[in-house]
Amino acid sequence: MARQLDSKGLRGSITIPGDKSISHRSLIFGAIAEGTSIIEGLLLSEDVKATKAAFEAMGVKIEQDGNLTYVYGKGFNGLTQPNHHLDMGNSGTSMRLIAGLLAAQPFSVTLFGDMSLSKRPMDRITKPLTQMGAKISGQSDKANPPLVIHGQKKLSPIHYQLPVASAQVKSALLLAAMQTKGETKLIEKELTRNHTEDMIRLFGGEIAVQGKEMTIQGPQVLKAQHIKVPGDISSAAFWIVAGLIVPGSDITLKNVGVNQTRTGILDVVKAMGGQIEVTDFNPINQSATLRVKYSQLKATEISGALIPRLIDELPIIALLASQATGQTVIKDAEELRVKESDRIAMVTDILSTLGVAIVAQEDGMVINGPNRLHGGHVQAKLDHRLAMMTMIADLIVSEGQIELGGASAIATSYPNFFVDLERLMK
Predict the structure, then answer these.
(1) Greatest Cα pair distance in the chain
(2) Cα dist. 295→2, 104, 142, 324, 373 in Å?
(3) Is 312 annotated in the active site?
(4) Least confident among 86-90, 146-150, 380-384, 402-406
(5) Cα dihedral sign for 43, 46, 50, 55?
(6) Which whole-number Å values give the CA distances from 126 to 134, 173, 342, in the listed order?
(7) CB within 8 Å of 170: residues ≥ 6 apart
(8) What are 150's strand-pairing partners?
(9) Which candidate in 19, 47, 114, 312 is catalytic?
(10) Which side of the chain, N or C, has fewer Cβ within a 10 Å radius?
(11) Is the pTM above the cut of 0.85?
(12) Contact (Cβ atoms closer than 8 angstroms) between residue 106 and residue 132
């Protein structure tokens, strides 16, 4: 790959594409609300397209007009049985959230995904949904996809303590609970991204949240809304790190979502001494402009309650740590082992191949730096975040070339990644 940069480093500004998590939820809530919702800035990535296609197969009309997406909602009672199995592609968000929704619908459906998604555990949603009376099953004792759902119109509310810190699991249960008569109470292991709770309120629903505990009464009726999707901080993270580690860089990132449940990477950057400035905060959609400059970095520890606030950014943070002075420890991140790949093993394999002093732990990684990177052959397989991490690493390779397999996976979350990369390199 070997991308040659002049001494000026990365320069200029880019607008970050729409948040993937919010884009999924905007389509879901638009479909189950009554009336026509307008989504501004929907991310049209492969993952989000899977959610869109699923609702179209269930009778929801969705139209694209430039930057606007019109979702002609049918309410909770208007979805119809699809005439084929629903393909979730590589999207764990689509699989888990739609499964939670369909558990309370009066029809049967099968959800399946690609090879990577088929290895991801779904028992974390099937167990609590079964407690609610749902008839849902997967393959093996971990309930791997395909998931077979025989919808039950009358589920029972539950009081449930989530054994893992997962916004997807929480959201699946909330989507089922909104259709269930009575009070459901959920207690999180750690605070996770709260986009679903925000969507419930935005669409006119009610949910009470106190610390890690949330209470929701069902059934509820939702009303259509106009949503402006902020940029995805998980996508911005690659440019944040690039700006910090490529000598001479000074870049501006516009429309970055800075919801406090997602900004763990900003805390890490500050702890490592990185130069990052946050301006132009928009309280309506919780977005801001970030300016990032090349910095001398120091090691830090990343653990505990911080982990759910940056779980998707940990691969690129590992690359950031490779350029920091000292030993960076990432722990309490065992959830990385059940993402699109075993990200602890894969990040360790890729970065060590490129010359990074990194050791895998059961629940994280230990990285000693700074490191001079060299070329090598690495494989991202079907994991988009590992492919993008490798592309950023390529910017600081000092000798040899990186040969990357699996770069096409980037389209699952960031279709214009290479366009934005070229823009910053000019």
Answers:
(1) 64
(2) 22, 51, 44, 10, 17
(3) yes
(4) 380-384
(5) positive
(6) 8, 10, 21
(7) 162, 186, 188, 192, 196, 214
(8) 108, 135
(9) 312
(10) C
(11) yes
(12) no
